[in-house]
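As described in the Methods, two query proteins were run sequentially through the folding procedure within a single session, without resetting any intermediate state between them. The first query and its resulting structure tokens are shown here.
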Amino acid sequence: MRVVRALSGTVAAGLVVLAAVVVVAAVLGVRRGFPGPGASSVAWHIGMAVLALGAQIFSDRRRGIPAFFGSLVVFVAAGYLLVTQWWN
């Protein structure tokens, strides 16, 4: 179970970094007058990063099946974000 939690922690951290990159790209786009990610994309990235971070904290504080399902929420959030915002 530790391996699953460690992997989901890495994915959750990656989502936080990805959200930060999208926010910076949006701010730079507005300031410099070039198209960047829209408000919807920024909101989805921030929302999924917050969800994944919360699920990872839940997973780290539990053991057994609840920890597994917390990790599963992280993986589903990452997959949903990548499919809907990057591969559509």
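Immediately afterward, the second query was submitted; its sequence and tokens are:
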Amino acid sequence: MRIAGLNRRLGKPGGAEESMRTLFENLAEDHRTVMFGHANRELGRDGMVTRRVFTADLDLHPIVRLPAAYLEFYLRFRRDLEQFRPSLIFAQHELALLGARQEAPQVLFLRDESLLHSEASEHGTGRAVCAAQRRLFAKIIYGSDLLVANSKHTAKKYAQQWNVAPKVVYPFVRVSEFEVKPIGEKILHVTPTIQKGIDVTLDVADRRPNEEFLVVGQEPRKSVRERIRSSPNVEYRGYVDDMQDVYRETKLLLMPSRWEEPFGRVPLESGISGIPVLCSGSGGLVEAVGDEDLIVGSNDPAAYVQAIESVLADYETYAERVRRNAVAKSAPKQITKLKDIVKRQLDVEL
């Protein structure tokens, strides 16, 4: 079977792109697959992976979030996709507009809120742009044959706005690639932004002076950098390519996120090594963590300190629970679930 993938990026991927790539590595074992997407001119190692796993990659400009850009992408990809003649299309984000115009059935992955229009934008100078964008999103949503959300939380958002009923399949995380033995003694925070609750983590660090804290991810704004520098038990390491190295130093992870996370890969990545994640439970994090005892109901640092003490007091029990959660939601099991859904809904055997 010829299977096409419509992906936002083919270079260094984010979580959504990594999930699609994991799926296509599996599908390529039994089918002819091509991934269409955006790539810069210096793909490096990721480009080699893309060329090896997928038949083609394309060199296009980065995404511009204006309706006119969708037409450009549509025209530039259309000929290549039609020449490939896919029997099935998997798509996510804006490029799904192209797949929605093809004869082959399209499975649309709903990874985030990028295909939800904002009611708040309907008034003001952007009204016409928002209206055009809303029409395009409708073509993508209603032009797809099967909608698959990455969490119940995401599915509910799309159900409310578009009156659709997405199936739920968690992101495809190859948890075995992140497994480490032994683990370390530090408390980890990934992505030092206020939305991700870095201020809460730093407050917790102040209250746990005998614990070592490690922060990784994009460079934070000045006030956060200064706060980290003034904290003797907090180390900021910047962006990290290989999270295995980080997990080797980690015993516990904090995710006091204020943002409504669509899902959350980190609890699965760390969980396979028995590293518990204490989180806010915002958005899809509840599903990712899969354990109510690891949900902290308040952004009060004192609540996180108390939760840390509880987990450390019965660490092996929590470690085993998060391992089981990671295995249950691992890529092989989720891909099998997706294939079953495609068979039932589209009568297509993968």
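The mean pLDDT is 88. We note this only descriptively and draw no conclusion about the first query from it.
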